Amino acid sequence: MIKVAVLVSGGGTNLQAIIDAKAAGIINNAEISLVISNKPTAFALERARKAGIEARCIAPSEFETREEFNEALIRTLDETGIDLVVLAGFLVIIPEKMVAKYTNKIINIHPSLIPSFCGTGYYGLRVHEKALERGVKVTGATVHFVDEGTDSGPIILQKTVAVKDDDTAESLQLRVMEEAEWKILPEAIELIASDRVKILNGRVKVI
Ligand code: GRF
């Protein structure tokens, strides 16, 4: 059983999808050992506590320097013996030191089909606004490993979602979550926990 930490900043619907997948037996080989938020008010913390999961807030404002915050984050993961870090709407740049220490052990969910509508500045509603502006007919979500870049690590899973003529950024954001994000994030966790994800030349092979 691998130990997973889920890092969040907001509402935590992706965290909820992971919790529900664990309860439903979709995730069998991983336990959610810890939830960390950088914001004390994140509703995700409530969701974690309600599910009986240890939930901690580690806020940059509690530390004198960014370096100290980074160290606290890494120390917490180390002390808990975390095998896999899941970024589920975590709006903090992951310290280089953490990427180096947890190489191929950090995954992120992004609400588009990478390499479209991703990279610096593409988060939240903006991703969907840009997809609508461009007039794409399909969009979706991507789970990928985190490397030193922004949304540039090896892609693990993607799922498409059709764009409707009358979609707004808000309606599209919700459908991408319901139809794609909440499905492929738990699925990717179980694949990794079952040792079925291999990386070869920067590309993922599911075995
Ligand atoms: C999701 O759209 C996710 O793709 C993005 O941030 C959002 C988080 O939503 N990275 P929630 O906090 O899981 O509800």
Structure, briefly:
36% of the residues lie in helices and 25% in strands. By secondary structure, it is an alpha/beta fold. It has a single domain, classed as 3-Layer(aba) Sandwich (Rossmann fold).
- List low-pLDDT spans: none
- The level of helicity is 25-40%
Instruction: State mean pLDDT (0 to 100 scale).
Output: 97
Given the C-alpha coordinates, what overall shape results?
Answer: globular
Number of helices: 6
C-alpha end-to-end distance: 19 Å
Word description of this protein:
- This protein has 207 residues and is α/β, with parallel strands linked by helices.
- It has helices spanning 13-23, 43-50, 66-80, 96-101, 125-134, 169-193; strands spanning 2-8, 30-37, 55-57, 84-87, 106-110, 138-145, 155-162, 197-200, 203-206.
- Helix 1 (13-23) crosses helix 6 (169-193) and helix 5 (125-134) crosses helix 6 (169-193).
- The longest helix has 25 residues, at 169-193.
- The protein is globular.
- It binds 5-O-phosphono-beta-D-ribofuranosylamine (GRF).
- 5-O-phosphono-beta-D-ribofuranosylamine is lined by residues 8, 10-15, 44, 88-89, 109-111, 177, 181.
Produce the secondary structure layout.
Blueprint: E1 2-8, H1 13-23, E2 30-37, H2 43-50, E3 55-57, H3 66-80, E4 84-87, H4 96-101, E5 106-110, H5 125-134, E6 138-145, E7 155-162, H6 169-193, E8 197-200, E9 203-206
Parallel strand pairs: 1-2, 1-4, 2-3, 4-5
Antiparallel strand pairs: 5-6, 6-7, 8-9
The structure holds 5-O-phosphono-beta-D-ribofuranosylamine.
Which descriptors apply to this entry?
207 residues, alpha/beta, Rossmann fold, 7-stranded mixed β-sheet, two-stranded antiparallel sheet, 6 helices, 9 strands, 25% strand, binds 5-O-phosphono-beta-D-ribofuranosylamine
